[in-house]
């Protein structure tokens, strides 16, 4: 999960296959509470130590989603986070055209080859164009 800098506690991104995705958290959700503590006004760097913990342990979160009128409580099962190098998908517009969307999370060794493979992959032919988003895990 990536938090901020949109606003304090707003989830900016969810890593595919990670514990946040398994819990049902989504980009745009706001972390209001951690283990019963009100954290709505805390900056991102102050939130992470409360969420982080040994793999296999649980932490209670209070979450507000932008499309829901009330907050909800969820339990996150902590696990080692693996930041993917890239994720890719085709986003279909209302007129049925597609745009290939690639998210580059890390500028690690081999990232260039993964991006090149994506460019030559099945996205071609299913998409009218492409968009690339690049941001490190730190933001």
List the helices and strands and how they pair.
Layout: E1 2-3, E2 11-13, H1 19-23, E3 30-34, E4 37-38, H2 44-51, E5 58-64, E6 72-77, E7 86-92, E8 98-104, H3 111-119, E9 129-134
Parallel strand pairs: 8-9
Antiparallel strand pairs: 1-2, 3-4, 3-5, 5-6, 7-8
Describe the structure.
The chain starts with a strand and ends in a 5-residue tail after the last strand. The longest helix is centred in the C-terminal third of the chain and has 9 residues, at 111-119. The relative contact order is 0.16. The protein folds into two domains: 2-77, Roll (Pdz3 Domain), CATH 2.30.42; 86-134, no CATH class. It has helices spanning 19-23, 44-51, 111-119, and strands at residues 2-3, 11-13, 30-34, 37-38, 58-64, 72-77, 86-92, 98-104, 129-134. The strands form three sheets. It has a four-stranded antiparallel sheet with strand order 4-3-5-6. It is α+β, with helices and mostly antiparallel strands and 139 residues long. Strand 3 (30-34) and strand 4 form a beta hairpin.
């Amino acid at each position: 999960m990536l938090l901020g800098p949109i606003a304090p506690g707003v989830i900016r991104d969810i890593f595919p296959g990670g514990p946040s995705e398994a819990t049902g958290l989504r980009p745009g959700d706001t972390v209001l509470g951690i283990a019963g503590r009100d954290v709505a006004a805390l900056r991102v760097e102050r939130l992470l130590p409360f969420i982080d913990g040994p793999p296999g342990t649980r932490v209670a979160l209070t979450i507000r989603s932008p499309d829901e009128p009330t907050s909800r409580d969820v339990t996150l099962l902590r696990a080692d986070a693996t930041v993917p190098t890239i994720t890719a998908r085709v986003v279909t517009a209302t007129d049925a055209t597609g745009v290939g969307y690639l998210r580059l999370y890390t500028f690690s060794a081999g990232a260039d080859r993964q991006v090149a493979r994506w460019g030559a992959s099945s996205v071609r032919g299913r998409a009218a164009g492409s968009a690339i988003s690049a941001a490190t895990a730190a933001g």
